[in-house]
């Protein structure tokens, strides 16, 4: 019997420095049946050249005008044939047995999603170890969402997951109107369409950080507006399933994290986020920082401490 086909879908925009390493991690997969679709989202660097260095019948390369990562993922999904979907960013990596280990669990659980272990890296994915998280167990989807957001943060980047095609269809297309946080919005919908999240120990993925100009690192009104919309949408989705103290507390903290990040760059957005938090739950959190920042916060409040932090360039 031929194993099910897994489609690995990669949007690529100006990723010439990283796309080769990402593709090598996919070609090293031990799962025998994969197709790889790279959608070049109007790159102006040598990304296309780097992808075309790989001569492999499993690789399909699509060129399109720049429309954003979500639109490229939707295009890749439209032309894909796999019964299972691995979304992957053009600068992230997956370990050789990642898909195989997740497929072992999904083979008899087609109404579930498979999650994996992850770690952040800056230069080499060998540089740090894995830190166990509370969601590294099998969980009902709302429990996974609540625990992941228990501190207001959580991680839901594409490489974490392997998704049955039927669940991706049920979740609907990626939202092309948002940029920063589109992965959190999509996978929240996908999780709420599944019966259970199956954690796959030993399935590893690696999230590359510290890239200049990356969407996730932008400090701009556009980026914060997108994060605001994502938090609002995810809150709506999850509260519709479970309106509880734990869900409200988690989102109240998420709103405060957003306020802390965009203050004082965009004070209006920060105050809107704080209003959202207050409407949900009385929990209060303070911005993170070093000993000096914490001392100043205690004396004059976190807003003035943030102004001084930004003015001195100690971000």
Q: How does this structure look, described?
A:
By secondary structure, this protein is α/β, with parallel strands linked by helices. The protein folds into two domains: 6-213, Spore Coat Polysaccharide Biosynthesis Protein SpsA, Chain A; 216-311, no CATH class. The chain is built from twelve helices and eight strands. The strands form two sheets. It has a five-stranded mixed sheet with strand order 3-2-1-4-7. Strands 5-8-6 form a three-stranded mixed sheet. It is globular, with a radius of gyration of 20 Å. The mean pLDDT is 93.
Q: Profile the largest sheet.
A: 5 strands, mixed
> pLDDT under 50 segments (min length 5)?
none
User: What is the CA-CA span between the terminal residues?
Assistant: 55 Å
Number of structural domains: 2
Helices and strands, in order, run as: EHEHEHEEHEHEHHEHHHHH
Question: What is the third-level CATH name, the topology of the largest domain?
Answer: Spore Coat Polysaccharide Biosynthesis Protein SpsA, Chain A
Query: What is the helix tally?
Result: 12
Strand order of the largest sheet: 3-2-1-4-7
Average pLDDT figure: 93
| Helix/strand/pairing category | alpha/beta
Which assembly state applies to the chains in this document? single chain
Any idea what the radius of gyration is? 20 Å
Shape: globular
* Reported CATH architecture of the largest domain: Alpha-Beta Complex
Text of the CATH class of the largest domain: Alpha Beta
Helix content: 40-55%
């Amino acid at each position: 019997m031929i194993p099910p086909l897994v489609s690995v879908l990669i949007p690529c925009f100006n990723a010439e420095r990283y796309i080769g390493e990402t593709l090598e991690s996919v070609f090293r997969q031990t799962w025998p049946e994969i197709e790889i679709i790279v959608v070049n989202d109007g790159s102006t660097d040598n990304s296309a050249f780097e992808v075309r260095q790989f001569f492999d019948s499993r690789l399909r390369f699509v060129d399109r005008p720049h429309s954003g990562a979500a639109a490229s993922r939707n295009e890749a999904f439209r032309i894909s044939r796999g019964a299972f979907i691995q979304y992957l960013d053009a600068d992230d990596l997956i370990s050789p047995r990642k898909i195989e280990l997740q497929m072992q669990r999904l083979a008899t659980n087609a109404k579930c999603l498979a999650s994996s272990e992850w770690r952040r890296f800056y230069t080499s994915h060998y540089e740090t170890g894995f830190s166990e998280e509370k969601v590294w167990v099998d969980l009902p989807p709302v429990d996974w969402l609540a625990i992941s957001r228990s501190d207001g943060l959580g991680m839901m980047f594409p490489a974490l997951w392997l998704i049955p095609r039927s669940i991706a269809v049920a979740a609907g297309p990626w939202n092309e109107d948002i940029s920063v946080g589109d992965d959190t919005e999509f996978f929240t919908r996908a999780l709420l369409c599944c019966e259970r999240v199956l954690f796959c120990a030993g399935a590893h993925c690696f999230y590359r950080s510290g890239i200049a100009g990356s969407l996730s690192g932008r400090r701009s009104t556009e980026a914060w507006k997108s994060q605001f919309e994502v938090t609002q949408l995810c809150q709506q989705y999850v509260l519709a399933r479970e309106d509880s103290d734990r869900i409200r507390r988690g989102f109240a903290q998420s709103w405060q994290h957003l306020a802390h990040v965009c203050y004082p760059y965009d004070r209006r957005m920060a105050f809107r986020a704080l209003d959202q938090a207050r409407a949900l739950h009385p929990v209060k959190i303070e911005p993170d920082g070093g000993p000096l920042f914490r001392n100043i916060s205690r004396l004059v409040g976190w807003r003035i401490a943030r102004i001084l932090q930004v003015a001195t360039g100690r971000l």
